[in-house]
Design goal:
single chain, 314 residues, mainly alpha, Cytochrome p450, 2 domains, two-stranded antiparallel sheet, 15 helices, 57% helix, globular
């Protein structure tokens, strides 16, 4: 009886795998059927079998860019399993998409949505994305980012001290480790106004949690988004998430504590969290002198496209 049960399960699994393979292979012709220049998954090495190679998604993007560059193409269509993605290399086209015509290109590449990702600007789609994008745009002006330069410079100074201490002990320095610590330090300091401890500790909690959020082409991180994207009911029942839940809770609680501390103490800092608090309170003001030519064009391009009052931000 037990043998029959597992035989049945095995047979169903094989049939399911063959169906998935057939379905994805069929979708591979999406761009070709439309007469659109495309790069096949085989060229990119992003077939189902590549899930076992643990290839980082950024390496795939770099490969697309290099292929387009070698072929002197400005753009191409690619497939991320069953999802068609429009990849643009030409900077002028990118400028139009992100600034002048952003309201026509509202959807980013899809990885499925869960409790955490549906609240993230990068994963939002349609009108909710357009609305949030309009709210967030004033927080990323040249002038606002310049407010954080001192914080970033201090992180750079800590990096120098760290490298000097390493050189005194060994002539060989692991720059991947060093810049990983620098990245964690900049994010924690400039975004949250918190000391990361990255340069004091061998592996700080900010580094550990940041690593948990990194996306790679592993079996787990490919299968889960596919289920989230194509079978959301099943994903909800299985409680699947794109990002590591422990890491997401850590950053959520870290931000909540930082906000509560500032509200209770009245403390203000020149970091991104302060900019967001000002935006939520409707106190964020953007002077034209702090805008670059590119940003001024973005403001003009957004007029009449759903501009909202930042004070309703939650």
């Amino acid at each position: 009886m037990i043998g029959t049960f597992w035989t049945t399960i095995g047979a169903i699994s094989v049939v399911a795998l063959f169906y998935i393979y057939w379905y994805i292979s069929k979708k591979e012709n999406y761009w070709k059927e439309r007469g659109f220049h495309h790069i096949t998954s085989k060229e990119l090495g992003t077939t189902i079998l590549s899930a076992f190679k643990n290839t980082h998604v950024t390496k795939v993007d770099a490969k697309v860019y290099n292929i387009l560059k070698s072929k002197q193409q400005s753009f191409a269509g690619i497939m991320e399993f069953t999802t068609p993605v429009f990849f643009v290399k030409d900077l002028e086209l990118v400028r139009h998409i992100f600034v002048k015509d952003f309201d026509h290109f509202v959807d980013h590449r899809g990885f499925g949505q869960d409790y955490w990702s549906e609240k993230m600007l990068f994963f939002m789609r349609g009108d909710p994305w357009k609305l949030m994008r309009t709210k967030m745009t004033p927080t990323f002006t040249t002038g606002k980012i310049r407010r954080m330069f001192v914080i970033i410079e201090n992180c750079g100074q800590r990096l120098i001290v760290f490298l000097q201490s390493k050189i005194e002990v060994n002539s060989t320095v692991d720059f991947i480790e060093a810049y990983g610590k620098y990245t964690a330090d900049v994010i924690s300091s400039a975004a949250f106004g918190l000391e990361s401890g990255a340069f004091r500790e061998k592996k700080s909690v900010f580094e550990k949690m940041g690593e948990k959020l990194a996306f790679t082409f592993s079996v787990k991180q490919i299968v889960q988004p596919l289920i989230l994207l194509h079978a959301p009911i099943v994903a909800k029942w299985m409680k699947l998430t794109i990002f590591d839940t422990l890491a997401c809770k850590f950053f959520q609680e870290t931000i909540q504590r930082a906000i509560q501390h500032r509200q209770s103490s009245g403390q203000k800092k020149e970091d991104f969290l302060q900019i967001m608090l000002e935006a939520r309170a409707g106190q964020l003001k953007t002077d034209e002198t702090e805008l670059s030519a590119f940003e001024k064009e973005a403001v003009v391009g957004n007029l009449g496209k759903g501009i909202v009052d930042l004070s309703d931000m939650t």
